[in-house]
Design brief:
The chain has 152 residues and is mainly beta. It is built from one helix and eleven strands, in the order E-E-E-E-E-E-E-E-E-E-E-H. It starts with 9 loop residues before the first strand and ends in a 10-residue tail after the last helix.
Length: 152
C-alpha cells in the first residue's frame, strides 16, 4: 500500500520538518488516527520556501508560547497576501483551500495543532514571475522528490 493511502496511526512520535542542520520545526505527534491528529509544534524559524504552501487537512491551532507572523492567502489562486499575526493563546482555523508562509517567528514559539482527516497531499502556490493566477504544485514535484522518468 502506498504511503499516501496507508491509514495513519501513531502515538508520541517526533518528526523534524526542514533540514536536520536547520530545522523549521519539530512536530510532536501526541496522537494520530485516520480521522484526526493532535500535534505540538516547536517552531524555530520562518519558511524558507519562496512561495506559500497549503495543508492536506483542515486544522485548528493555538499558540501556547511565543508567536509568529505569516503571509496568508484565503484564495491562493488569485487572492492578495494578508499579513496575519498569530499571538499567544489565539485560536484559529486553517481550511485546506487556504495557503500561508510563516515569515517571522518569536524565539521559543510552541503551538498546539488539531488536524482533521487528510483530504489530499501538500502543495505550493507559485506564479511565474509574479503573474496571476498562481498555480498549485504537488510538494513532491516542487521539492524534486519524485524519481526522474526512466530511472528505476
Amino acid at each position: 500500500m502506498s504511503r499516501e493511502r496507508r491509514p495513519r496511526w501513531g502515538i508520541l512520535q517526533t518528526f523534524v520538518i526542514g533540514k536536520q542542520d536547520n530545522p523549521m520545526m519539530k512536530r510532536l505527534r501526541l496522537v494520530q488516527t485516520p480521522l484526526f491528529g493532535v500535534y505540538v509544534h516547536f517552531i524555530y524559524r520562518e519558511d524558507l520556501d519562496p512561495v506559500p504552501h497549503d495543508h492536506p487537512w483542515t486544522f485548528w491551532r493555538c499558540v501556547l508560547r511565543g508567536g509568529y507572523m505569516e503571509n496568508y492567502l484565503d484564495d491562493p489562486g488569485r487572492g492578495q497576501y494578508r499579513l496575519r499575526v498569530q499571538r499567544q493563546w489565539r485560536v484559529g482555523r486553517f481550511p485546506t483551500d487556504h495557503a500561508h508562509r510563516i515569515v517571522v517567528v518569536k524565539p521559543g514559539t510552541v503551538s498546539l495543532v488539531i488536524v482533521g482527516r487528510k483530504r489530499r497531499v501538500w502543495g505550493f502556490w507559485g506564479s511565474v514571475e509574479g503573474i496571476m493566477p498562481r498555480t498549485w504544485v504537488d510538494y513532491r514535484d516542487a521539492l524534486g522528490l519524485r524519481p526522474t522518468e526512466g530511472v528505476r
